[in-house]
Amino acid sequence: MPTVDIDPDELRDLTGTEEKSDDELKDDLFGLGLEFEGRTEDGAFELEFAPDRLDRLSVEGVARSLRYHYGDSRGVHVPSTNSADWTIEVDESVPADRPYVTGAVIRDVDLDEESLDSLIQLQEKLHATMGRKRAKGAIGIHDLTMLKGSAATEGNPTIEYVGVEPEADTFVPLDADAEMTPAEVLEDHPTGQTYADLVSEYERYPAIYDDLGLFSFPPVINGRRTEVSTDSRDLFVEMTGTDQWTIDKMLNIVCYALAARGATIEDIEVSYKDHDLVRPDLSTKTKTVPHERIETILGIDLDPDEVIDLAERSGLEAERNEGEAGNLVYEVTIPPYRVDVLHPLDVIDDLGRAYGFNELEPCYPDVGTVGGRHERSRLERATREQLVGLGFEDLLNFHMINEAENFERLDVAPGSDAYGAGEPTTIKEVYSEDYTMLRTWVMPSLLMVLERNTHRSYPQYLSEIGFTARLDDSENTGVSENRHVGAVLASHDAGYEDAKARLQALCRQFDVDLETPPTEHPTFISGRTASVVIDGEEVGVIGEVHPAVLVEHDLEVPVAAFEFDLEAFRE
């Protein structure tokens, strides 16, 4: 879960609650869904929060939520903006993979060390979350007084978003003293090396120019000429990315944070070849929420005026209306900084928090059945208990993985006939390159744990009963979802016989017939590998892990392992 560092004194100052103790603040923050994880070396609160509430990535956003929580602020607040005085012109040479730009001018901001640190933290947290490590959106913040806009026909000073040859121009990047070309930044600058993979394949690199020259190399690094300091009073904020919606929403969050410091927001014009935009886009949106659904979800009776009051205390606004069926509904206005409200249930969650979930009285559901453990869950539990009894330590690993961990590092070809080599279910828009697909078997996860546990003593006997998935046209969803039983034995004398003995003991407990005919599998040693056949059906594999796979995982002891489908134990 994402965390954010918040100075409690600054939080008290921004909320006007100097009398609040640290413990009281922690309780209030917990009511908002912000969990206290500890303190930093500087004494700041380290808070964990739901990753959808990106407006709380800064002390300003957290303070705004608290003011609504205390009732000091109500309804939707949209800061006013001054007319555009600057233009960003998008040139046709901009790389097609990163064609979008947005921005705003911030006037009269009062920056001290604390507020500047908060702004930098907000920038980096947005990069890591909504910006997908700058791949989807990257933020540049500049000292406006150091920019000189090119003259434009309509009178606005203009800067240009263009594509440049890797060696075509030079600038002095942040944390450097000499001019460098974009190509040299990617090769020699620490920040450039970190983000080189985002642009290194482009024929032309993204670049932003003013009348004095290149001052920003997005999404990699800004120029030193426009570096922001505590002396900066006017800022130019630009963002580039792969889609307009993402960078526009990131911009809104930054603008609200700076407006909370007393700054004035000024529009800019974004000029594309075929259309123009005025940014920031601080327009609101609405969601229609039925009154009956609010009461059903929260389990309480509410007067319409109470609903409107709860909405205003959540930073929303609700207007009574009549639905198509004559029922009572609310047209709820959502502020521009809320990127998480996608469904009426998101609104109801806000209303419940404003009411206070601790104020809700628990009650039995109005149904005529009694809950119990599902048959599959009972089978999993029984199998898990038997594995623990055989000396295995039970694990619960992530279901998501990447292609290299699932296939390449175990020498398995996707789509081959080898056990665990089914066609993977991939993630369309990945959050992290570490998690790009659902695993097709649990063996990669078990070997990853062994790899991370090389500093611990041996033997290590690990097992997992976990979720796997693969593409399957015969399923209605196109995906076959399964539960696999996997186990590894890592010790100086681990062998095929040790793994088979435990597998046999496990099968005896479930009164099934086990056969282990020889087979070949790229993950295991030839001649020391067998199929797992239960009640006449081939359901898995058992063997000694191949030395090449052990070396790939930095393992210096032999490993024997088995894996099979849990369904084989179902009567």
TrEMBL record:
The record's GO molecular-function terms, alphabetically, read: ATP binding; magnesium ion binding; phenylalanine-tRNA ligase activity; RNA binding
Question: Which cofactors does this gene product need?
Answer: Mg(2+)
List positions binding Mg(2+): 340, 346, 349-350
Q: Which SUPFAM superfamilies does the protein's record reference?
A: Class II aaRS and biotin synthetases, Putative DNA-binding domain
Q: Which InterPro entries match?
A: aa-tRNA-synth_II/BPL/LPL (IPR045864), B3/B4_tRNA-bd (IPR005146), DNA-bd_dom_put_sf (IPR009061), Phe-tRNA-ligase_IIc_bsu (IPR045060), Phe-tRNA-synth_IIc_bsu_arc_euk (IPR004531), Phe-tRNA_synthase-like_B3/B4 (IPR020825), Phe_tRNA_ligase_beta2_arc (IPR022918), PheRS_beta_core (IPR041616)
**What EC number(s) does this enzyme carry?**
6.1.1.20
Its keywords, alphabetically, are: Aminoacyl-tRNA synthetase, ATP-binding, Cytoplasm, Ligase, Magnesium, Metal-binding, Nucleotide-binding, Protein biosynthesis
The entry's localization annotation reads: Cytoplasm
Per UniProt, the enzyme's principal EC class comes to ligase
One of the GO BP terms on file = phenylalanyl-tRNA aminoacylation
Quote the cellular component terms of the Gene Ontology held in the record: phenylalanine-tRNA ligase complex
Ranges for domain B5 come to 282-362
> Reaction catalysed?
tRNA(Phe) + L-phenylalanine + ATP = L-phenylalanyl-tRNA(Phe) + AMP + diphosphate + H(+)
**Stated family:** Belongs to the phenylalanyl-tRNA synthetase beta subunit family. Type 2 subfamily.
Q: How does it assemble?
A: Tetramer of two alpha and two beta subunits.
NCBIfam families, alphabetically?
pheT_arch
The molecule here is called: Phenylalanine--tRNA ligase beta subunit
The organism's taxonomy opens as: Archaea, Methanobacteriati, Methanobacteriota, Stenosarchaea group, Halobacteria
What gene is this protein a product of?
pheT
